[in-house]
Each structure stands twice: as C-alpha cells, then as structure tokens.
Amino acid sequence: MDLLDRAFTHHALPPMPLAEEPAPREEPALSVATEAADQAADPIEHIWDGLAKSVEQAAWQGRTVIAVTAAERGAGASTIAVGLARALDRCGHRMAVLHGSPLRAGYHEDLLALAAEHDLVIVDPGPWLGPARIRRDHLARVSQGCHAVIVVRREGACAMPAAEAAFDAVGLACLGEVLTFCEAVDPVVR
Q1: Measuring CA to CA, which residue among 23, 30, 7 is closest to residue 79?
Q2: Residue 182's closest CA among 91, 62, 47?
Q3: Cα 100 vs. chain centroid, distance in angstroms?
Q4: CATH class of the region 3-10+28-189
Q5: Secondary structure of residue 189 in the 3-state scheme
Q6: Are 176 and 150 in contact (CB under 8 A)?
Q7: How far apart are the C-alpha atoms of 183 and 110, rounded to whole Å?
Q8: What values do phi and psi take at 23, rounded to 5?
Q9: How far is CA 127 from the centre of its chain?
Q10: Which of 52, 62, 151, 154 has the fewest CB atoms within 10 Å, i.e. is most exposed?
Q11: Buried b vs exposed e over 31-44: b needs ≥16 C-beta within 10 Å?
Q12: Helix and strand tally (H, E) in the chain?
C-alpha cells in the first residue's frame, strides 16, 4: 500500500472517543515555523492538500466536474477520488463524489443534479483508458458532463502520451497524473 492509500485509510477511520474530556490548552500563535512543523508531522495530508489546490485552480477556470480515471482497475483511482474529495471538503467546498459507470441508466442525470447542488463533483467512473487504442467516440460518450480529468496509474505501468491528445479532442482538460504504488517515500503528482 502506498502513502496515499495509507493516508486515505488513516483519515477514513472515525476518531476514537476519549474516556474523559481533556483539559483545554492554550493554542500558540500560528507562525511559518508552526506550519512547517505541521507539514513535517503529517506529510501525507500536505500531499492531499496540494492535489486539492490543483483542482481548486481548475474550478476557478470553470472546471467543476473532475473525473479521476485510470487505464486499469486496481490502480488506486477510487482511493484518489475519495481522498481528493475529503481534502477539498476540508478546504470548505461543498463536495460530491459520483461512483459508477457513465454508461448506466440515469448516470448523467445524477451527475447534472450533483453539479447543480455542489461546488465541485469528483467523478469515479472506472477505467476509461485501456491497453488497446483509445477510441475518441467512446471517450466522448463516457466523459460527457465532465470538465477535466486526473489520470491515475501505477508507477511501473506504461505512460500513455496519446491519452492527453484524446482528452483534448473531446474537450477535457487533463489536470495531471497521479502515480500510485510508488517505491519512493513520497508519492508523485505530476
């Protein structure tokens, strides 16, 4: 399990109830040194927040429905989608996550309803890209209603340079790529 997976697992667990109320403590004034210490104490949350900031920048450009997809199942796209939604929720956005195939009945109506009620919608549609040639007509159909995409792939998997051109052809902005299951200490966000 890579660092982002561990962060999601860690943050998805509800906090343990305390046996007794702790005594109130005086909070120190926030400073640059305190922020740096906080980042050092929880570097994973810092990574999630960095990914959330890139989505916020896209939202400022009107891209409020973001798909998180991969070329294969098991690459970690669902973990990234939920973790990203949690990070954006911590930033104060009204969030929604839509899971499931864009080809199921009622999917696009659900997407439109969520987009109308929330600031940002993260879509977890399953794999859009496969090992075969990318079919733009299929990509246009499954990506309908989305404004941008984040591609997730395992570190050892082959890069797909044709994917960005296909996204451009159907009107999707590619916000970047997240590598999962990395051997390095820090996950890579490109």
Answers
A1: 7
A2: 47
A3: 15
A4: alpha beta
A5: strand
A6: yes
A7: 38
A8: -65, 140
A9: 14
A10: 62
A11: eeeeeeeeeeeeeb
A12: 7, 6
Query: What is the C-alpha separation between 166 and 134, in angstroms, rounded?
Result: 7
Give 113-151 as a DSSP string. HHHHH-SEEEEE------SS---HHHHHHHTTT--EEEE
Cα dist. 120→11, 28, 123, 159, 169 in Å? 20, 33, 10, 28, 23
Tokens of 43: 């570097």
| 84 vs 55: CA distance, rounded Å | 9
Name the nearest CA neighbour of 7 among 49, 44, 42, 50: 44
Six token digits for residue 17: 């109830």
Q: What tokens does 170 get?
A: 């159907």
Bridge partners (DSSP) listed for residue 151: 69, 177
CB 68 within 8 A of CB 123: yes
| Nearest-angstrom CA–CA distance, 169 and 163 | 10
At residue 153, the 3 state secondary structure works out as: strand
Q: Which amino acid is at 173?
A: A
